[in-house]
From TrEMBL:
Native species: Fictibacillus fluitans
Keyword vocabulary terms for this entry: Oxidoreductase
PROSITE patterns: ADH_SHORT (PS00061)
Composition-biased stretches (Basic and acidic residues): 269-282
Protein's UniProt name: SDR family oxidoreductase
Pfam families the UniProt entry points to: adh_short
Classification via NCBIfam families: PRK07109.1
Family: Belongs to the short-chain dehydrogenases/reductases (SDR) family.
InterPro entries named in the record: KR_dom, NAD(P)-bd_dom_sf, Sc_DH/Rdtase_CS, SDR_fam
Amino acid sequence: MGISLKKLKHQVVVITGASSGIGLATARMAASKGAKVVLAARNEAALQQLAEELRSKGCPTAYVVADVGKEEDVRKISDTALSEFGRFDTWVNNAGVSIFGKAMDVSTEDMKRMFETNFWGVVYGSRMAVKHFTERRVPGALINVGSLFGDRGTVVQSTYSAAKFALHGWTENLRMELEKEKAPVSVTLIHPGRIDTPYNEHAMSYLEKQPAHVGMMYAPEAVADAILYAASHPTRDMFIGSQAKLTTVLGRLAPRMMDKWMEGTMFRTQHDNRPSNPREESGLYQPGYGMHERGTNSGWVRNRSWYVKASKHPVLSAMALTGLGMYVWNASKNNKKEQVPYS
């Protein structure tokens, strides 16, 4: 993108949805790497506890209680960063919530509420970040956290998927306009696969059984690693795990096959065998519980994403793949020579 970003240890990083899951892991990792952080979420008790934790480790920290679905609250996040630190260098739009239920069962009221958080919250945050970076004329990073379900539709989470599709579209359109204007903004879209966070516990559920990831998932630290890499290295997209990348690629190359695969697997791998939490306890209209990075999912967790590691070192990865390809090709040639009978 032709933009040079500061090293993370010299940055002020704004993180929405910082009280749990990916946001919490990102805040802790950013602090450990020397960044100053501005935490935003609806759960004030969790924010206060996290701020005290990070400050006790020597990290300058500010927090603001904010509902990103309200533009005036997002403005408060920006104002807090400016009043506490005089600037911010990276803005991470991470806050989000889901609804589990069939498309025809979910109320339009609940759908609209989710879009306020998952889509409009990203729009408000993006506009605040771009305004700040362009006015300062100092390069900054805007990082929007999407989903594999923003690249490929799914069942049972139709509203969440639709909101993430909208988020992805907004991010791509904004990136192109800013690039055309030569604005000093690096725009990155994060594509997480299934991540072991309290995301399912915070969701509004229309199901009889509790939403949960069943099968392979990734640790939230893998997403935090990708986010913070993009904060100091201009990057268009970061996919968290081959799971996310393959779902996207196959969804485009073989859409009908992926329809059938989704229909055959996703109805049974998005809930656990226990009663669903009551809807009134969900985080759709009120803050969910905080200070938990991991959720109560069923399956196995990969603590790192080799796909993220490869994305951070594309030249070395390409050289390694080329070397592997040459080795396989030479091995196959030698094998053929050995099989040629002597006359």
